[in-house]
Amino acid sequence: MNTPLSALASVDLGGVRRCQSWPIAHAMGATCALHSVPNRSASLRCDLFSVALTRVVASDAFQPTDRGVDMETSRQLTGVLALLAGLAFVLGAAVLTLRTSDRGLRDGAWVIPALISALFLVFSMVAGAREGALGFWPEHSARGLWGNQIWFDLLLAASAVWALALPRLRAQGMNVWLWLALVAATGSIGMMGMLARLWWLEARARRG
Questions:
Q1: 3-state helix, strand and coil shares in percent for the chain, rounded to the nearest 5
Q2: Distance between CA 182 and CA 184 in Å, rounded?
Q3: HSE-up of residue 115 (Cα within 13 Å, Cβ side)
Q4: Are residues 121 and 34 in the same domain?
């Protein structure tokens, strides 16, 4: 009778260090099961290949990392980033309010949304690489009512910006359908890029 894989979650082969990681245990179990190791054996004995495999996977290079520490560090980092983003919004909005006159924005103001778009694109690429390209969707659809509330809030904010900017986009001859598709696909990345383009065109028109 072959030893079940579940029974090999922790094994001791000739003094080899115990292995608690389930993928490693399954690999060991598959190797031992192929050789019909008795289930009643107090100390499992496989052939030299199985022992060698056990020694390799039990080495420090193959030990699982402490996911608890990683998750805690990640939560602390994302908390700090959220706080910094909130402060940046408040300060940025205040500066924009103080420095914008009735005649409109300064000529070089387009650099600000362009820079934000580029930085947010890089951040989004990192998030996508680490957590999947569609990792944002479960946060909005499967995290309860607050997840839905954040999603609705983002859509409402984007709709408000689009409605306010649309006449100005048309006035500058921008392709509104192209920009709408970009905003719908990328969110604030496209929105900031659109504002940067709009402000640049408006500044050029003012210069004549």
A1: 75, 0, 25
A2: 5
A3: 5
A4: no
The pTM (predicted TM-score) of the whole model is 0.63
| Rounded Cα distance, 188 and 182, in Å | 10
Chain center to CA of 86? 19
Over pLDDT 70: what percentage of the chain?
67
Domain containing residue 43: 5-62
Asked if 114 contacts 192 with a C-beta cutoff of 8 angstroms, the reply is: yes
Quickly tell me which residue has 């006035």 as its tokens.
171
Using CB atoms within 10 A of its CB, is residue 83 exposed (0-12), middle (13-18) or buried (19+)? exposed
Same domain, 135 and 89: no
User: 150-191, pLDDT tens digit by residue?
Assistant: 999 999 999 999 999 999 999 999 999 999 999 999 999 999
